[in-house]
Specification:
By secondary structure, the protein is α+β, with helices and mostly antiparallel strands. It folds into four domains: 2-156, GAF domain (Beta-Lactamase, 2-Layer Sandwich), CATH 3.30.450; 184-330, GAF domain (Beta-Lactamase); 340-449, 2-Layer Sandwich (Beta-Lactamase), CATH 3.30.450.20; 460-692, Heat Shock Protein 90 (2-Layer Sandwich), CATH 3.30.565.10. Helix content is 44%, strand content 19%. The strands form six sheets. Strands 10-9-8-13-12-11 form a six-stranded antiparallel sheet, with helices on both faces. Strands 3-1-7-6-5 form a five-stranded antiparallel sheet, sandwiched between helices. Helix 1 (2-19) packs antiparallel against helix 2 and helix 4 (132-183) packs antiparallel against helix 5 (188-202). The chain starts with a helix and ends in a 9-residue tail after the last strand.
């Protein structure tokens, strides 16, 4: 007996080895039935495997008519009991079997569970009942079968997992391909079309669409959808915030930025729509742009991979639309920056010029490409900007970053000298902080040429000063000779003496001279007219010819030609000649009191007016050239050094017959040409006036 048992065990071991190589559950079950018949002598047996809550027969002994056996529920009969409890059942009862109809030949049964997979059942006639040894051998066989089924399930799950991973990888590659394609899209509609196509290729979903926010209509307008959407829904819908429940839900998702996944639309009040073919739904926001809707006609049609890929696709589409919007804004910004006439630059936190426009490059005298990426300090080192402007900039930034102010912009005026040597101009610089969170990110600068405006302001200030001077002169200097004339006429009326009429006439002449000089002075500050080449010697002699020289002599020691307004230059020279003659030939002059116009007039002094007698000496006046200009000198008494600062002030004279405007006119004519004028001592000890900053003609000197 012991030998038979060992033989049976060896046979069952071989069976275990055989079924390890089988590749299907059905093959394992058939081999189990064969082993039960051949090794255990179980003539009538069957294997049932659980499927959808029932235990249908998968393999059975030959001659077994499975069509006559009802498929039981997994919790019915002996099979259900053994399956549910996991325990073998040995029943010696005529009604014990689930695998045959009532038959007097089979009245005992053995039922053994196959783990979680199903049950093995064998039947015999009562004349040959099962023993405990049969149960043990049957359980051993079934343990081998259960292990084989476990292996197949593991392999099946692993294969399914591998297939799922392969499918996920395939779909992910498609999404990656789509994302690369999205980056090349030129507009948002192009992005929308691409992700709708991706829904068909990646998710094999016939119903999907993209709805972008339309500001003019205040709706999420359908801009791209699969053809099935229009076919199933009649049209591609728009979603408004004041629409029905579904529309409101979609709008809420757009505003909240939180996606929605619905397993079954018909059981969710937020998106339920009568008559809609949609059963599964994903609504994913696309940032500020709109929403991406994926739907299926089957319930529970989205797994975690679908949701993850939808999220990846929507996120990529959002980034692509953001980039398109950024490119559009950047292009708009660049267009504005490049077209504005003002200079524009962006400085980062380290003071590097990250972006400049052509206008800024022209202002500082560089090529555009030579500025971008260079430190602002370069402009200081090249002398374009003064060093103190850097301190002004730093102080401005510190003030803007201070917690004590909410200001984000500031402005100041400075002078810039282009590196190409085209000449300095005055600019108004506006600085504004770039957006930042915790730390300074830099500034945007806009630079505008205000040279003309500043000059106009300065000219206006000069005009106002002249008006003040005129008002003072009119109210004071003209009042004096007017008073003398009125008093002389009263005396003449009383006495009839000719002397009073003569004094009145001199006062009127004095007033006429003052008025003429006032008119000359008022025009002297105007911008010069036509500038041409003027021979200095010729214009000097023409000017000398109209001046009352009282026997003075003129020597011109230069043949230089210069660029000037001929009429204004002649006027300048005439005033210098007149000044030299009047202050160098007065017989009663005493030192510096007669050297040049100094103080305010005193026409009330009749003695002073009558003292203007000339001929006390012959004055020598000389016109000569300087390296950058010319001079007019005389051999008179000269000008004390401590009195030279006030020489060019209007109305300042020591001559009783002078008006005090001659040298002021000289100063203003020189200013109008952009020249400088100063008083010094001549070689003969007299007065010398030097005019510098003059542009000579090509054949000068």
């Amino acid at each position: 007996m012991r030998g038979d048992e060992e033989s049976t065990l060896r046979a069952l071991h071989e069976v275990a080895t055989d079924i390890r190589d089988l590749d299907s559950r059905a093959a394992v079950c058939r081999r189990a039935v064969e082993a039960a018949e051949q090794v255990l002598a179980f003539d009538h047996c069957a294997v049932s495997l659980e499927r959808d809550g029932r235990l249908p027969i998968v393999a059975s002994s030959s001659g077994f008519d499975t069509d006559t056996v009802a498929t039981l529920s997994a919790d019915e009969g002996l099979a259900g009991r053994a399956y549910q409890t996991g325990e073998s059942l040995l029943m010696n009862d005529a009604a014990a079997s689930d695998i045959v109809e009532e038959d007097d030949r089979f009245d005992v049964a053995l039922t053994v569970p196959l783990g979680d997979h199903g049950v093995f059942q064998a039947v015999r006639a009562s004349a040959d009942p099962f023993e405990e040894a049969d149960r043990d051998l049957g359980e051993l066989l079934c343990s081998h079968v259960a292990q084989a089924l476990d292996r197949l399930d593991r392999e099946r799950r692993l294969e399914a997992r591998n297939e799922t991973l392969a499918d996920s990888e395939r779909r992910t590659r498609k999404v990656q391909s789509v994302t690369e394609d999205l980056i090349d899209a030129d507009n948002r509609r192009g992005v929308a079309t691409r992700i709708v196509d991706a829904a068909r290729d990646v998710f094999t979903l016939p119903l999907s669409g993209v709805h972008l926010y339309d500001e003019s209509r205040d709706v999420l307008a359908g801009v791209a959808a699969t053809s099935a959407v229009a076919r199933e829904l009649g049209e591609v819908p728009d979603y408004a915030c004041d629409g029905g429940t579904t529309q409101q839900t979609v709008w809420d998702i757009y505003e909240s930025g939180e996606p929605l996944v619905v397993a079954d639309v018909r059981s969710d009040d937020r998106v339920r729509a009568e008559g809609s073919p949609v059963r599964s739904l994903i609504v994913h926001p696309l940032g500020d742009h709109g929403v991406y809707i994926l739907s299926s006609t089957d319930p529970k049609d989205f797994d975690r991979t679908d949701v993850a890929l939808a999220d990846l696709l929507a996120s990529t589409a959002t980034a692509a639309m953001d980039q398109i919007a950024h490119r559009r804004d950047l292009e708009r910004y660049r267009t504005v920056v490049e077209t504005v006439p003002d200079g524009v630059f962006l400085l980062d936190e380290a003071g590097t010029m990250r972006q400049v426009n052509d206008a800024w490059a022209d202002i500082v005298g560089y090529d555009h490409d030579d500025l971008a990426g260079e430190p602002f300090q370069l402009l200081v080192e090249d002398g374009v900007i003064d060093e103190h402007i850097v301190e002004t900039y730093l102080d401005t930034i510190r003030q803007l970053l201070s917690s004590e102010t909410d200001r984000r912009s500031a402005a100041f005026v400075t002078e810039l000298r282009p590196a190409d040597g085209t000449g300095a101009h005055t600019y108004e610089v506006h600085l504004r902080l770039l957006p930042y969170d915790d730390s300074f990110q830099g500034v945007a600068g806009v630079v505008r040429d205000v040279t003309e405006r500043v000059e106009q302001q300065r000219e206006l200030e000069r005009e106002n000063e002249r008006l003040d001077e005129f008002a003072s002169i009119v109210s004071h200097d003209l009042r004096n000779p007017l008073g003398v004339a009125r008093g002389s006429l009263e005396l003449a009326a009383e006495t009839g003496e000719q002397a009073h009429f003569d004094r009145c006439e001199r006062s009127l002449d004095r007033m006429e001279t003052l008025i003429d000089d006032l008119l000359t002075l008022s025009r002297a500050g105007e911008t010069v007219g036509s500038v041409g080449t003027v021979a200095l010697d010729e214009i000097a002699f023409r000017g000398w010819a109209v001046v009352e020289t009282d026997g003075a002599d003129l020597a011109v020691e230069t043949a230089a030609s210069l660029r000037a307004d001929e009429g204004r230059l002649r006027q300048l020279l005439e005033n210098l000649f007149r000044n030299a003659v009047e202050h160098g030939s007065t017989g009663s002059r005493t030192g510096s009191d007669d050297a040049v116009e100094h103080g305010s007039t005193d026409p009330l002094s009749q003695a002073a007016e009558d003292a203007a007698e000339h001929g006390g000496g012959t004055v020598q006046v000389t016109v000569g050239a300087l390296d950058d200009g010319f001079y007019v000198a005389d051999d008179g008494p000269g000008i004390p050094e401590d009195e030279r600062e006030n020489l060019f002030e209007s109305g300042y004279t020591t001559s009783d017959s002078g008006t005090g405007f001659g040298l002021a006119i000289v100063q203003q004519i020189a200013d109008a040409h952009g020249w400088s004028v100063r008083a010094t001592e001549s070689a003969a000890g007299g007065a010398r006036f030097e005019v510098s900053g003059v542009e000579f003609a090509d054949d000068a000197q």
